[in-house]
Structures are given as structure tokens and as C-alpha cells.
């Protein structure tokens, strides 16, 4: 790895909490993934499991009832809440409520928003789909999370919300967007900065992501690609760690879950639940969290590709999360057990 990447990883490492006996459940991160519909159950699972395997204490999935049954069958380790609803016309499930409780976005969101006070970070988008009721519900939850100052990671179909309503996240420096190349292009066109971005691309490798971040008022953008470019429009990082060469679907879900866990550790760092030394500034922690999540994901991809080659699938990255963490941030515990943490 490059010297700059090694230096960045050392800074990210300062955010990682030690495992101390005094900690109690929940202090090292409570993350919820909002997504998961009848057609898309894998994405929220991969995101939530990446968060859990990386070291988050509590990983939730908030999804539709039809997705909940399936996701629960994947793992008993996740807490799955069937609180989302899709439009009646888009599902084979009958609508049994005549009160609008299952067809009105305000009423659906009212069941989800009270959960926010028990969470540290939201991931919105994996497996969400484009159903209007699901999208409208997420918009309401995003506003409520922003009002509470809650960090959030938006990916996949949640980025459609940003295209349609950029003010949902504009200027919110605790929001992280993780677009792929197609989603990045859609965002720049929706914001009317595509020509500016194309012109910026002539200047430098990082100018495109900086232009989009500025257009959104300082939101953190993780532009996925051969190298991940991360910027809030003022500070830019390049993650140049080697990744795998298989582009199977679902790998971005490991990224969202990993970033979310680092954002959960950001809160633990700011709360001072261990002796941190406070060498990191609060304003740099979101960028460091995005860098850490990107680095973990690329290392997972490299490790999985080395084992599976062309047959690599998203679940193979999940299996490599702990090894990736050990390779980049791990150390031997000081309790004499010899355990690597």
C-alpha cells in the first residue's frame, strides 16, 4: 500500500475501540439498515452482516414483512423489524387495514421514527427498490434522522431520493453517499452539474467527486471505482488498496455496513468511552469512517477473489470481514490470551 494510505489507516485505527470489560452492550455501535423488499432480501442482509462482523454491537434490519421472513432465515444474529410497507399494487400480499396504517407513508414512518432514539447510525437503500410508498417512507425517516443529528449512509435506490429531493441531504455533513459509476452520473445530471463534473475530470482524478460533494453542500461522497475517491468538497482521500477483479452484485452492501460501523465507533470516540487521547478532530471523523469502510471492503474483495476467482459472490466478502479487519487494523490483545482483536 502507498505511504499515504498507510498513514490514513493509522489515523482510522485511532477510532477503533478496544474491547474492554467495562463496556456494555450497545456502546460499540447500534446500526439499522432500512431496505429489503419482496424482491430484494440479500442486500440488507449483506450490509447488516458486514456491520456485525466488523464489530458493531447491534445490527438491525427494517424491511417489509415479506422480506423479514426471508432475512430472518439467513441469520438469527440480526434483529429484523417488518415495519416497512410497499404499495398494494406492487405486492401479492393483501391489504388488511382499512385505516391507511399500511398505505400511508406518514403512518408507516411513525412506527419507525421512535426507533431512531435507540440507534446510532442508519443505512438506507440496500434492497429498498423503487416502490413509491417505500421511497416516501424513507424520505420521512431521513428527515427525522437529520433532525436528530444521526449519521446515515445512503446507497442504491436511496440515491433516487437524493436525485429527486437533494435538499433531503444537502448541507448535512453526517450523510455519506456511496454511488457507483452509473449512480454518480445520475446524481450529477439531477443536480445540473454534469457539465461541470466533466470539465473537472480534465483537471484531476479527484475533481469529479469534489464537484458533486460541493453541489450537495459538503455531503461525504464515496465514488466507487478502480480506486475509491472520497470527498466532502473540501478534503479528499483516495483509497488505493487492491481489490478483487470480479464485479458481482452486492459488494457495495459490504461497504455501506462497514462505513456504518465506523460511524458508530465515531460516536464511541466522541463519547470518550475509552482513553482515546483525542488526537482526532471531530470534523475529520466522518471522512475517516468512510476511508475505513472503503479499505475494509476492498481488502474483503481482494481476499475473496484470491480464493474464489470468477465464482466470487457478495457472501464471500461477508466471510472475509474479520480477516480484512485483522490485516488492516488488528492487534494482539493485552490480556495474555493471545487473541487477535
From TrEMBL:
The keyword Lyase applies. It catalyses: (6S)-NADPHX + ATP = ADP + phosphate + NADPH + H(+); (6S)-NADHX + ATP = ADP + phosphate + NADH + H(+). Transmembrane segments: none annotated. (6S)-NADPHX binds at residues 127, 180-186, 253. Residues 8-328 form the YjeF C-terminal domain. It is found in: Cytoplasm. Pfam families: Carb_kinase. One of its GO terms (molecular function) is ATP binding. Its cofactor is Mg(2+). It comes from the Eukaryota. ATP binds at residues 224-228, 243-252. One of its GO terms (biological process) is metabolite repair. GO terms for cellular component: cytoplasm. It is an enzyme of class 4 (lyase). The keyword Lipid metabolism does not apply. Keywords: ATP-binding, Cytoplasm, Lyase, NAD, NADP, Nucleotide-binding, Phosphoprotein. Its EC number is 4.2.1.93. Catalyzes the dehydration of the S-form of NAD(P)HX at the expense of ATP, which is converted to ADP. Together with NAD(P)HX epimerase, which catalyzes the epimerization of the S- and R-forms, the enzyme allows the repair of both epimers of NAD(P)HX, a damaged form of NAD(P)H that is a result of enzymatic or heat-dependent hydration. Belongs to the NnrD/CARKD family. This is ATP-dependent (S)-NAD(P)H-hydrate dehydratase.
Amino acid at each position: 500500500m502507498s505511504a499515504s494510505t498507510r498513514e490514513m489507516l493509522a489515523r482510522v485505527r485511532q477510532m477503533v475501540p478496544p474491547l474492554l470489560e467495562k463496556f456494555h452492550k450497545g456502546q460499540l455501535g447500534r446500526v439499522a439498515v432500512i431496505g429489503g423488499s419482496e424482491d430484494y432480501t440479500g442486500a440488507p442482509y449483506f450490509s447488516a452482516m458486514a456491520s456485525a462482523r466488523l464489530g458493531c454491537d447491534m445490527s438491525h434490519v427494517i424491511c417489509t414483512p415479506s422480506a423479514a421472513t426471508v432475512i430472518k432465515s439467513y441469520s438469527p444474529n440480526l434483529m429484523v423489524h417488518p415495519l416497512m410497507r410497499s404499495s398494494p399494487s406492487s405486492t401479492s400480499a393483501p391489504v388488511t387495514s382499512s385505516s391507511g396504517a399500511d398505505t400511508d407513508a406518514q403512518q408507516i414512518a411513525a412506527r419507525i421514527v421512535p426507533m431512531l432514539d435507540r440507534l446510532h447510525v442508519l443505512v438506507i437503500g440496500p434492497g429498498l427498490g423503487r416502490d413509491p410508498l417505500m421511497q416516501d417512507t424513507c424520505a420521512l425517516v431521513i428527515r427525522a434522522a437529520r433532525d436528530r443529528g444521526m449519521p446515515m449512509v445512503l446507497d442504491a435506490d436511496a440515491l433516487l431520493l437524493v436525485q429527486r429531493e437533494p435538499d433531503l441531504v444537502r448541507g448535512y455533513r453526517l450523510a455519506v453517499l456511496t454511488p457507483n459509476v452509473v449512480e454518480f452520473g445520475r446524481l450529477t445530471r439531477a443536480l445540473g452539474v454534469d457539465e461541470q463534473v466533466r470539465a473537472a475530470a480534465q483537471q484531476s482524478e479527484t475533481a469529479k467527486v469534489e464537484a458533486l460533494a460541493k453541489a450537495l453542500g459538503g455531503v461525504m461522497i464515496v465514488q466507487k471505482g478502480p480506486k475509491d475517491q472520497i470527498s466532502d468538497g473540501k478534503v479528499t482521500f483516495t483509497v488505493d488498496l487492491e481489490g478483487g477483479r470480479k464485479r458481482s452484485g452486492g459488494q457495495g452492501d459490504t461497504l455501506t455496513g462497514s462505513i456504518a460501523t465506523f460511524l458508530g465507533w465515531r460516536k464511541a470516540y466522541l463519547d470518550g468511552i475509552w482513553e482515546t487521547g483525542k488526537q482526532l478532530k471531530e470534523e475529520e471523523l466522518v471522512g475517516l469512517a468512510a476511508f475505513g469502510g472503503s479499505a475494509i471492503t476492498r481488502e474483503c474483495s481482494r481476499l475473496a477473489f484470491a480464493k474464489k476467482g470468477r465464482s466470487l459472490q457478495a457472501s464471500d466478502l461477508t466471510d472475509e470481514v474479520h480477516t480484512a479487519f485483522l490485516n488492516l487494523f488488528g492487534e494482539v490483545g493485552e490480556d495474555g490470551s493471545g487473541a487477535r482483536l
